[in-house]
Amino acid sequence: MKPAKRLRVFVGEDERYRGRPLFEAIVLAAREHGLIGATVFKGFLGYGPHADVSAADILLLAENLPVAVDIVDEKEKIESFLPFLLRAVNSGLVICSDVDSEQIIPERDRE
């Protein structure tokens, strides 16, 4: 395992950046920035500091459910991506933590 940084960004699904959903803009910017990968998780229950509890329920179609974007990469690459996040995220939470990681590539995909 190698030392790495995990970047987790919590936003509402209705948040936007330059006309597109913020979570999508973060993933696309991470790819352009050369980060190894990004994953978006949509919550079915959550709240933020300025919001009511939002829930996805069969009988209730909630608006602005919580979304988390996870990115893990080398410390330097994560740190160089932070200025974009500080520009793009108007309301949310950005967490950066130390992790150990190992990218596992299927044998058929190895060169």
In short:
With 111 residues, this protein is of the alpha+beta class. The protein starts with a strand and ends in a 10-residue tail after the last strand.
Question: Your description of this structure?
Answer:
- The structure is a single chain.
- With 111 residues, this protein is an alpha+beta fold.
- It has one domain (2-101): Alpha-Beta Plaits (2-Layer Sandwich).
- The chain contains two helices and eight strands.
- The strands form three sheets. Strands 4-7-1-8 form a four-stranded antiparallel β-sheet, covered by helices on one side.
- A hairpin with a 2-residue loop joins strand 2 and strand 3.
- The protein is globular.
- It starts with a strand and ends in a 10-residue tail after the last strand.
- The model has no long low-confidence stretch (mean pLDDT 87).
Features:
111 residues, 4-stranded antiparallel β-sheet, 37% strand, alpha+beta, single chain, 2 helices, two-stranded antiparallel sheet, Alpha-Beta Plaits
CATH class: Alpha Beta
Enumerate the strands of the largest sheet in spatial order, edge to edge or round the barrel: 4-7-1-8
What profile does the largest beta sheet have?
4 strands, antiparallel
Content-based structural category: alpha+beta
Report the order of strands and helices: EEEHEEEEHE
**First-to-last CA distance:** 21 Å
Number of domains: 1
Fraction in helix: 10-25%
Q: What shape does the CA trace take? A: globular
Give the overall pLDDT as a whole number: 87
Number of helices: 2
How many strand elements? 8
Estimated share of beta-strand residues:
35-45%
CATH architecture assignment name: 2-Layer Sandwich
Reported by name, the CATH topology is Alpha-Beta Plaits
Which radius of gyration do the C-alpha atoms yield?
Answer: 16 Å
Contiguous runs where pLDDT drops below 50 for at least 5 residues: none
